[in-house]
């Protein structure tokens, strides 16, 4: 298989996430550069307000209530058992981020509506819900960011001085993995297309190993794309039932099994036709990332493919690309919660070469790149 680098993202526009909170046209003509810069930075510093109001609303059950229909602050306060004025303040805060729409009712009172496309996003069991991500941020991220300066000073090391992997608890993963399924569809679609164009999916009895599978969403969507495929997910004990339940929910349980294991210390199933790593490499140190590829090479069939979907910096794309900016910032979030990094295409090429592998493709998706590799 020889595949050039290409962009596979769809052209459908996703609205910008930036909600302007400072109006630059309101500066007097004489405002000096430092004052303007302070306004710009202040807008970043109040970024914490967005998760503040969204998470509070989720905690209080406001989104669940608004899923039933639009409400005034008074009606919502009664449903939630919250203070009327404070509920109005919270709803107005949400409307500043376009999370709820604020309109005037016939009697002049503000009415708040949760747009239909956000109903599933806040539902605890929604397939593409962010509820798990919100829970994770409350349990882990808020306090972890306080550690960033220390980790930058000391380099996120274990007590014996070694570089640290990013490792949160199994319990914290049960929340997080349920909050990142939404990343899957724009990753699976171009990956499946690319595999198909290379003839990969045509053989019968093809096998997929999904290393650190989480809910198994990538396996489940790929199983729907390739009816001949069967998949094995590998993850820790508390995650396995989540992945198996979701396979049943998505109608692919007959071709999916999830096994409990430690992807470092346990053997992987051999002769794998597709070894999939999604959001696994950004948890690694350079050394452990290289080791993962050495292990993958041994588990891969002769014409097998390794697919790594992650926050992969592509230096050739230029410093200013939105993806590279996001990936480098993602690395800071990894450092805050432990170790890990956003590695570059160049890093991957080195490790692949060490493992007797070579890169055969690089796909772009909204918040990831997918690096494809096979035996050299
Ligand atoms: C960031 S999540 C990614 C989950 C999934 N691949 C996705 O992208 O939705 C990392 C996953 O790796 C699993 N994991 C981490 N270390 C592991 C290990 N040593 N052995 C097996 N699974 C592990 C975690 O339990 C978690 O489900």
TrEMBL record:
Coiled coil regions in record: none
UniProt keyword Transferase, yes or no: yes
Low complexity bias: start-end ranges: 1-19
GO MF annotations in UniProt: O-methyltransferase activity; protein dimerization activity
Keyword tags: Methyltransferase, S-adenosyl-L-methionine, Transferase
Record Pfam families: Dimerisation, Methyltransf_2
An annotated GO BP: methylation
Source taxon at top rank: Bacteria
Protein name listed in UniProt: Class I SAM-dependent methyltransferase
């Amino acid at each position: 298989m020889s595949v050039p680098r290409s962009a596979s993202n769809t052209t459908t526009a996703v609205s910008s996430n930036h909600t302007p909170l400072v109006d630059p046209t309101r500066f007097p003509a004489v405002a000096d550069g430092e004052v303007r810069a302070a306004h710009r930075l202040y807008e970043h510093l109040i970024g914490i307000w967005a998760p503040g109001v969204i998470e509070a609303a989720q905690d209080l059950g406001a989104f669940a209530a608004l899923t039933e229909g639009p409400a005034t602050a008074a009606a919502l306060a009664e449903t939630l058992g919250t203070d009327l004025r404070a509920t109005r303040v919270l709803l107005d805060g949400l409307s500043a981020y376009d999370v709820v729409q604020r309109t005037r009712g016939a009697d002049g009172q503000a009415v708040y509506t949760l747009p239909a496309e956000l109903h599933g996003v806040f539902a605890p069991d929604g397939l593409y819900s962010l509820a798990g991500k919100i829970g994770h941020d409350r349990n882990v991220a808020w306090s972890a960011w306080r550690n960033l300066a220390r980790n930058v000073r000391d380099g996120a090391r274990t007590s014996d001085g070694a570089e640290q992997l990013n490792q949160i608890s199994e319990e914290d993963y049960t929340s997080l993995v349920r909050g990142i399924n939404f990343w899957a569809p724009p990753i699976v679609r171009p990956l499946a297309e690319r595999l198909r164009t290379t003839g990969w999916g045509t053989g019968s009895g093809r096998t997929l190993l999904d290393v650190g599978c989480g809910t198994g969403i990538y396996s489940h969507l790929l199983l729907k794309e390739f009816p001949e495929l069967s998949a094995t997910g590998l993850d820790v004990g508390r995650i396995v039932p989540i992945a198996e339940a979701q396979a049943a929910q998505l109608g692919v349980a007959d071709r999916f099994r999830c096994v409990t294991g430690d992807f470092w210390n346990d053997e992987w199933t051999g002769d794998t036709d597709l070894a999939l790593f999604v959001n696994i490499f950004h948890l690694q140190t350079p050394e452990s990332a290289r080791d993962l590829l050495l292990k993958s090479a041994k588990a891969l069939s002769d014409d097998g493919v390794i697919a790594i979907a992650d926050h992969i910096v592509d230096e050739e794309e230029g410093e200013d690309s939105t993806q590279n900016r996001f990936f480098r910032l993602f690395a800071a979030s990894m450092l805050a919660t432990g170790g890990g990094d956003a590695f570059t295409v160049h890093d991957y090429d080195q490790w692949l070469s060490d493992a007797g592998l070579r890169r055969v493709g690089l796909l772009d998706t909204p918040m990831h790149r997918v690096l494809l590799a096979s035996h050299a």
